[in-house]
């Protein structure tokens, strides 16, 4: 009986630890501590976007594909690109500061 109680107590501690760690990951991810990469539809600004230039962008989760709108001051071309971003897009849009690189863009939460 005593062994069963010890086993049950350890099981409860393990379940509690998993819940705390899982919640901790979600919180850290929400704050932008982890990067994610995917192909997204990226809206360029009307005036163009030079390699190395930073822009304020809005990331929006999509039904089939997430989108990154960097044309908030006037939309230009829309391209499908590889995007690395910190802080997962779940259900709401969020603001990012993005830098254009040669083949992709990198976005961080400001």
Short description:
With 110 residues, this protein is of the alpha/beta class. Helices cover 26% and strands 41% of the residues.
What does this structure look like?
There is one protein chain. The chain has one helix and six strands, in the order αββββββ. The protein has one helix at residues 2-30; strands at 35-45, 54-60, 67-69, 75-86, 94-100, 104-108. It has a six-stranded mixed beta barrel. β2 and β3 form a beta hairpin. The chain is elongated and about 75 Å long. The termini are far apart. The model has no long low-confidence stretch (mean pLDDT 82).
Largest sheet: 6 strands, mixed, barrel
Q: Report the average pLDDT across residues.
A: 82
Q: From the helix content, strand content and strand pairing, which structural class follows? A: alpha/beta
**Percentage of residues in DSSP E strands:** 35-45%
Domain unit count: 2
The Cα radius of gyration reads 20 Å
Question: Which descriptors apply to this entry?
Answer:
single chain; 110 residues; alpha/beta; 2 domains; 6-stranded mixed β-barrel; elongated
